[in-house]
């Protein structure tokens, strides 16, 4: 008969953080592969409410601040950045855009926002990262894009 170990919250947090760190490393590895192997292209399809060619983030006022999930994932929104993290590691999309642009990679950000939802498609080379948030109350948002889950305002 197999003896199953019961998991407690610390085990769940450990594995969640391990998965997030692995996802981040894979994302960075994919970015490096794309940077080193991609050719320049001009893709100017215009959808979303941001002007064509935008390469910065502008989250709406209602989402500005730090939000935390019950598994330790965080989002911090500023007037011009989305900073996400888990397990003590934080990544700034503003810094990622600057690094990609410095490497000669074309970057575009297409945002859609209103008083209860915010989404941003962050595209570079052939990759797209989607951030999508719905406000369920003044202190709770649901993420259905990258790092999905329920987040509470801190």
TrEMBL record:
It comes from the Bacteria. Residues 39-58 are annotated as: Disordered. The lineage of its organism: Bacteria, Pseudomonadati, Bacteroidota, Flavobacteriia, Flavobacteriales. This is DUF5640 domain-containing protein.
């Amino acid at each position: 008969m197999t003896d199953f170990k019961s998991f407690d919250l610390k085990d769940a947090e450990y594995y969640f953080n391990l998965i997030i760190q692995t996802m981040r490393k894979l994302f960075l590895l994919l970015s490096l592969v794309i940077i080193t192997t991609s050719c320049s292209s001009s893709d100017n399809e215009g959808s979303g409410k941001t002007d064509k060619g935008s390469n910065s983030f502008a989250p709406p006022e209602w989402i500005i601040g730090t939000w935390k999930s019950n598994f330790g994932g965080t989002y911090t929104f500023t007037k011009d950045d989305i900073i996400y993290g888990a397990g003590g590691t934080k990544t700034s999309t503003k810094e990622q855009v600057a690094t990609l642009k410095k490497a000669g990679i074309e970057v575009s950000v297409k945002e859609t926002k209103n008083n209860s939802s915010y989404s941003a498609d962050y595209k570079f080379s052939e990759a797209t990262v989607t951030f999508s948030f719905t406000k369920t109350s003044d202190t709770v948002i649901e993420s259905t894009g990258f790092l999905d889950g329920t987040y509470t305002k801190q």
